[in-house]
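Lab notebook page, bench 4
Experiment: in silico fold of construct C2
Operator: M.H.
Input chain length: 94 residues
Purpose: comparison with the prior construct
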Amino acid sequence: MADMSPLFRRKGPAPQDRLVTLIGKPGCHLCDDAQAVIEKVCGDLGVPWEKKDITEDPQLHDAYWEQIPVVLVDGEQHTFWRVNPERLRSALTE
């Protein structure tokens, strides 16, 4: 079967159907910086986001302790330590 025209190819999920997760801990200034970027980008795009405290979840602690803050997009690691707003926006609109 021939490739379908680009007009008929399925695009990725709409931004409002995505989910951004910030994994951090209280008192973490990098986590606060990451949250500010996430709030702005997700707010602009209408993307839901959530915040998880690494100190309250042993699995998250084991997986990400040395990388916080960690940002997940749809459950997959997007970045850690610093969040680039343009890169996050691009990931959410691809």
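Observations: The longest helix spans residues 29-45. The radius of gyration is 15 Å.
Next step: discuss at group meeting.
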